[in-house]
Design goal:
This protein is an alpha/beta fold and 227 residues long. The protein has a single domain, classed as Peptidyl-tRNA hydrolase (Rossmann fold, 3-Layer(aba) Sandwich), CATH 3.40.50. It is 36% helix and 16% strand. The protein has 7 helices and 7 strands. The chain has a 7-stranded mixed β-sheet with strand order 2-3-4-1-5-7-6, with helices on both faces. A hairpin with a 5-residue loop joins strand 3 and strand 4. Helix 2 packs across helix 6 and helix 6 runs antiparallel to helix 7. The N terminus and C terminus are likely disordered.
């Protein structure tokens, strides 16, 4: 099967554009909510793809080659989280990419630190970046990779959830997230060569969560921003 046939086969979803969601600016760097940006940086480093700012696309974008010489584009929208879809739609329109070829990587409080979840489609699940993406692409039928960032313990108030996602990982969590990003790169690489469904079957069961029930849930807090 040729690369072009693989990309268009209804039973084999091969990403052509990989998007990491986050907020621009140094004060949001390395926060939980920006793990999508960290994933794109890890991919760019592994595949030696340079990212540069493009005003037309309202983001940082790079084009290069993934495993088995698969052509791929990487995107970090700079619109702030709530308007991520504007940047994504600008890229898909310009390169005439179908929504099903867009793989979106983002944080998920419903998953513990150390877990990944790939899906071929689905709702926004309360994530504002995904709400914007779905609205601008006009469909929920595109693959996404959720990276677990854990939830604030015993804090049901919304403002505490905001502080949590805009906070930083603890030292123990950071060590695990470094391993998680390695698995993210591996999962996406497999998606490019054998399809998202194959990567789902191997990586959705992966857990890097420590066995100890006393795994710390420490994080520094940042002032609220667009989430």
């Amino acid at each position: 099967m040729t690369a072009n046939a693989s990309a268009t086969s209804p039973s084999l979803v091969i990403p052509q554009l990989i998007v990491g969601l986050g907020n621009p600016g140094s004060k949001y760097d390395q926060t939980r909510h920006n793990i999508g940006f960290a994933a794109i940086d890890a991919l760019a480093d592994r595949w030696q793809i340079s990212l540069s700012e493009n005003r037309r696309f309202q983001g940082y974008i790079g084009e290069g080659w993934g495993p088995q010489q698969r052509k791929v584009r990487l995107l970090k929208p700079q619109t702030y989280m709530n308007a991520s879809g504007q940047s994504i739609r600008a890229v898909t329109d310009w390169f005439k990419l179908p929504p099903q070829s867009v793989l979106v990587v983002y944080d998920d409080m419903d998953l513990p630190v150390g877990r990944l979840r790939l899906r071929l489609a689905g709702s926004a699940g309360g994530h504002n970046g995904m709400k914007s993406t779905i609205a601008h692409l006009g469909t929920q039928d595109f693959p996404r990779l959720r990276i677990g960032i854990g939830a604030p313990k015993g804090r049901p108030v919304e403002r505490d959830a905001v502080s949590h996602v805009l906070g930083h990982f603890s030292a123990a969590e950071t060590a695990i997230m470094n391993q998680v990003l390695e698995q993210v790169v591996a999962a996406i690489a497999l998606s490019l060569t054998e399809g998202v469904a194959k990567a789902m079957s191997l990586y959705n069961s992966l857990s890097l969560v420590p066995n100890s029930p006393d795994f710390p849930d420490q994080h520094s807090q940042s002032e609220p921003a667009s989430v």
